[in-house]
Design a protein that fits this description.
The chain is α/β, with parallel strands linked by helices. The chain has helices spanning about 45-60, 75-90, 110-120, 135-140, 145-165, 190-200, 230-235, 310-325, 330-335, 345-350; strands at about 15-20, 65, 100-105, 125-130, 175-185, 205-210, 240-245, 255, 265, 280-285, 290, 300. The longest helix has 21 residues, at about 145-165. The two termini are about 30 Å apart. The protein binds S-adenosylmethionine and iron/sulfur cluster.
Length: about 350
């Protein structure tokens, strides 16, 4: 199935990115994210996942981002990647339209062997999440018991994962490997400089994410948000930065270190919302479609996915869902207030 004309939503935004969550579970327990211990019932089969990817491609998606929970925990990752790799070279398959497949991971399970497999199966870019460069803070931000020694183990694992990714051919200079850090005021804002130093030493773009009001369990409050402008100000004091702006449909605004130390990104979803050109559709591991990260509920696609896949019905449902989309929660946050309920981040996939 393929739309004859580009499908746009009520604000003329095209669909560009499908974020597909493979699992709701995680091997970390970051308190700002709060993953469930159990999978949601009714995980999508491989056939259903592929049907969703095909329908999204037919509606204009060019990027597939695999996420979770922790996607490397899921044994459904590998068959999915193998099938997608084969479909991408088949001109008759809607998946042929995919320009890139990417993956977001906390890095704990990203061994040299897995990094090599991801590269071999056509994953173009990896984003690794790490919220501190010092042991005590790393343990706290990841929800690990055991204080500094647990944090030290995590740092060893994640820095080894970054090395493994580079060894496998994910070139940070080409934006194929990035580091994501959520910054929570009063929790890890003292990690800004250490994180930037870690990323600069490795030539990796660090993307600093404002703490977002996704989910209901993390006790979000606006006092815990460090605005991106403040993050940049603190970094500027150490390494002067030049603004490069935000590309169309991108989440990150980019800054270049004046001393040649590479690039930094800031994701200012709270202080400078970018709903205006948001092109992302999120599908959870159990087949709920969310057209906004801050939504309370998704649309259940399972009636078109089980017991057998109804490709036509699925395509029409997803097309209608996108065409009816009017979400711009982040732009309206100040008016709506933060009383509204949200689905959890690890379920949505970030
Ligand atoms: N486990 C993987 C990881 O950590 O990269 C993938 C899933 S995780 C939900 C995706 C991204 O969402 C991570 O970079 C994480 O830091 C970010 N995230 C989770 N909760 C957040 C929050 N409340 N505000 C901002 N970013 C958040
Ligand atoms: Fe797990 Fe990623 Fe959530 Fe941390 S942010 S608990 S690593 S899903």
């Amino acid at each position: 199935m393929h739309a004859d004309a580009p499908v746009v939503d009520r604000h003329a935004r095209p669909l560009g990115v499908l974020r597909l969550s493979l699992t709701g579970r995680c091997n970390l327990a970051c308190p700002y994210c709060c993953p469930d211990g159990d999978e949601p019932p009714g995980l999508l089969s491989l056939e259903a996942q592929l049907a969703v990817v095909r329908a999204a491609c037919g509606l204009g998606a060019q990027t597939l981002r695999l996420t979770g929970g922790e996607p490397l925990l899921s044994d459904r990752l590998w068959p999915l990647l193998e099938t997608i790799a084969a479909a991408r070279v088949d001109a008759a398959d809607p998946i042929h339209a995919l320009q890139q497949v990417t993956l977001t991971t906390n890095g704990v399970l990203l061994t040299p062997q897995r990094a090599g497999q991801l590269k071999a199966l056509g994953v173009a870019r990896l984003t690794v999440s790490l919220d501190a460069a010092e042991p005590e803070a790393a343990a706290q931000m990841a929800g690990l018991q055991g204080g500094a020694s647990a944090g030290e183990r995590l740092l060893v694992q994640v820095t080894a994962a970054l090395d493994a990714a580079v060894q496998a051919g994910f070139d940070p200079a080409l934006g194929q490997l990035k580091l994501n850090s959520v910054i929570q005021r009063g929790h890890n804002d003292d990690q800004l400089i250490p994180l930037a130093a870690l990323a600069r030493d490795r030539g990796i773009e660090l993307r600093l994410i404002e703490y977002m009001d996704v989910g209901n369990r993390n006790g979000w409050s606006s006092e815990q948000v460090l605005p991106a402008a403040e993050m940049v100000k603190r970094l500027q004091a150490r390494w002067p930065l030049e603004p490069e702006g935000r590309a169309d449909h991108a989440t990150a605004s980019r800054w270049r270190y004046r001393d040649g130390g590479g690039v930094l990104g800031t994701i200012a979803s709270i202080s400078e919302p970018f709903c205006g050109d948001c092109n992302r559709l999120r599908i959870t591991a159990d087949g709920q479609a969310f057209t906004c990260l801050f939504a309370a509920e998704g649309v259940d696609l399972k009636p078109w996915l089980t017991p057998v896949v109804d490709r036509d019905g699925l395509f029409k449902t997803m097309a209608a869902l996108w065409q009816q989309r009017g979400d711009r929660y982040s732009e309206l946050r100040a008016q709506v207030g933060n009383g509204s309920s949200h689905a959890e981040m690890a379920y949505l996939g970030g």
